[in-house]
Design a protein that fits this description.
One of its GO terms (biological process) is regulation of cell shape. The chain has five helices and twelve strands. The protein has 276 residues and is α+β, with helices and mostly antiparallel strands. Strand 4 and strand 5 form a beta hairpin. The longest helix is centred in the N-terminal third of the chain and has 28 residues.
Length: 276
């Protein structure tokens, strides 16, 4: 104990300087948006690097299983994209369908949480790879999340297992649409709200993305109806959905970008401004 006390007495000047330095850094970051943004970007870079090293080590001992899974994911992705294309109306007699509205980039998941109420993923693609905020993220099985932050080489993705997550979704068979959310409980089950009582709902019905936003194309798989009840207030269903995507074992994902998203957002913003 005496040695510890002697250590603090002997190094009191340095310790005082270090404490004051930490306080000054904290105050600087919180009082200036520029420094705060720089701090966030630096934190993303550092954490991304740590997660990347960790992921590389674990993947080395799991190469065979990952190669088999990646092969299966590529097969499922091709079927998945075919399903999206089938939702596009046949307009050959009028004009050619632009099949390059969406661009797709592959990425690797280097960190993933699914046991919190606001879960995030970290992927090994960033602004240097043209990744931007609000890009949709899917797996070969279905919806995964939306890009929320980027650094040069990495990006954070707001998982669909996040209490703030909202995705426009619909019934594949009837086009009745609503909003997909997560109640923070089961990582394999999400909820579908705002489906009117007049809709014909059955167990096992397939739920897909609705395409009412610029984030996901129409027809990306979400899951199947697990259970449903009529809400106590209002004439709407409260529907539980079994996810197609296993959110607890993600390794490879795909980022989707709509090339005309900026134009659409600017038009909608202008229209909203005129109506106000």
């Amino acid at each position: 104990m005496q040695q510890i006390i002697y250590f603090f007495i002997r190094n009191k000047n340095f310790l005082l300087f270090f404490v004051l330095f930490l306080i000054s850094v904290f105050l600087t970051i919180n009082s200036h948006s520029y420094h705060k943004n720089q701090y966030v970007n630096s934190a993303n870079f550092i954490s991304g690097g740590v997660f990347s090293v960790k992921s590389s080590i674990t993947d080395y001992f799991d190469l065979k299983d990952q190669n088999q899974k990646l092969t299966e994911e590529n097969r499922l992705l091709r079927l998945h994209l075919q399903n999206i294309e089938e939702t596009i109306p046949a307009l050959d007699s009028i004009q050619p369908v632009n099949d390059s509205v969406f661009s797709i980039v592959g990425a690797k998941v280097i960190n993933n949480s699914y046991s919190k109420t606001k879960n995030q993923l970290t992927i090994n693609k960033g602004s240097a790879d043209d990744v931007v905020i609000d890009m949709g993220v899917i797996s070969s099985e279905g919806v995964v999340g939306i890009v929320s932050h980027t650094s040069k080489n990495f990006a954070s993705v707001q998982s669909i297992l996040n209490s703030n997550s909202q995705v426009a979704a619909k019934f594949k068979k009837s086009n009745h649409f609503g909003t997909m959310i997560w109640d923070g409980k089961n990582p394999n089950v999400v909820q579908l709200k705002e489906i009117p009582r007049v809709a014909n709902v059955a167990l096992g019905d397939t739920i897909v993305t609705d395409g009412r936003s610029t984030i996901f194309p129409e027809g990306v798989m979400i899951g199947t109806v697990k259970d449903f009840v009529i809400e106590d207030v209002g004439d709407y269903y409260n529907i539980s959905i079994d996810l197609f995507t296993d959110m607890t074992s993600l390794k490879h994902v795909y980022l989707i970008a709509r090339k005309d998203a900026k134009e659409i957002k600017e038009l909608e913003k202008e229209a909203t401004h005129v109506e106000q």
